[in-house]
């Protein structure tokens, strides 16, 4: 029961979060926001995940998950109600920050729950299910909010998305008692440096590189497609192909983890990422680009959940929440800084140069994973 409840909460929480990203962007543009303003508002979604994920991880180690998730659902719902009652760009800044706080609370707590509710034998399967639900919400959230906007308008889309938070609150009221109770204060040094043994540091670096590669592929492939003159629908189809590949490969994650060492799988992840980035500049049509995206997804698609599994396995006793929080801090910092850094690089070396540079970065990640395997 607890693991199924956690997965259900994951679906409704992340569907709402993915819907919120699209809703913020489209609603702000509808109100006349510039691209710069939209970027600032969108960036606020990641401020609290960067600043507070480690702190929230420590909270998840000590406090009952049901209380943390209840507060997060209230924050998410409140952010959407702000947009409904006060539809102005100034209020959208506050709504984005509040929703980002909810995201950081959800993400760390739910990942920690999955790990704590799993046995060593079932951990890979449960994290694989968690990651597949996450992939499904990336489709369900934007689709739901897009239909709501087209058929009912932006104000009702806010209410429809807020209703997902209400479902979460209802589930927690009805079944939250089945989740693990609070552990209380944890003994020992709780500073981040106390968690940073060699294995954790390597996993933080490799996890950040996986996140960088996955995000920048989705960021730069549309740019390459636009340069080829592809339509928006064709570019969307290429990214949908990537999503399909990611979902397919994650169905086999548990079996792969059982059969191969995690670090060996990471080498495969980085090699497929390197090949995918290196081939993109040679793609001259949507079909070729879609095939490259599918192959990229078959490798990189397991990278993010795999690093979660390895981070949890390498975490100190009673400190899994803090360790996962550190991982999310690093990954969200990469998500904020990566596009800006490589955007500046792209202005110098060109888009094709960025793809080849990222291929080299992925090869570096594979070398690091191989080094870890030898240890």
General description of the model:
By secondary structure, this protein is mostly helical. The chain folds into two domains: 177 residues, Growth Hormone, Chain: A, CATH 1.20.1250.20; 183 residues, MFS general substrate transporter like domains (Growth Hormone, Chain: A, Up-down Bundle). The protein has 14 helices and no strands. The protein starts with a helix and ends with a helix. The model has no long low-confidence stretch (mean pLDDT 84).
**What is the H-and-E element order?**
HHHHHHHHHHHHHH
The major sheet is characterized as: none
Number of helices: 14
- Dominant shape: globular
Mean pLDDT: 84
How are the secondary structure elements laid out?
Elements: H1 2-30, H2 35-44, H3 47-62, H4 65-85, H5 89-116, H6 123-152, H7 154-175, H8 198-227, H9 232-250, H10 253-259, H11 262-279, H12 286-300, H13 303-314, H14 320-374
Helix pairs in contact: 1-2, 1-5, 1-6, 1-7, 2-5, 3-5, 3-14, 4-5, 4-7, 5-14, 6-7, 6-9, 6-10, 6-13, 8-9, 8-11, 8-13, 8-14, 9-12, 11-12, 11-13, 11-14, 13-14
Q: Main attributes?
A:
mainly alpha; Growth Hormone, Chain: A; 14 helices; 0% strand; globular
Structure summary:
This protein has 375 residues and is mainly alpha-helical. Helices cover 83% and strands 0% of the residues.
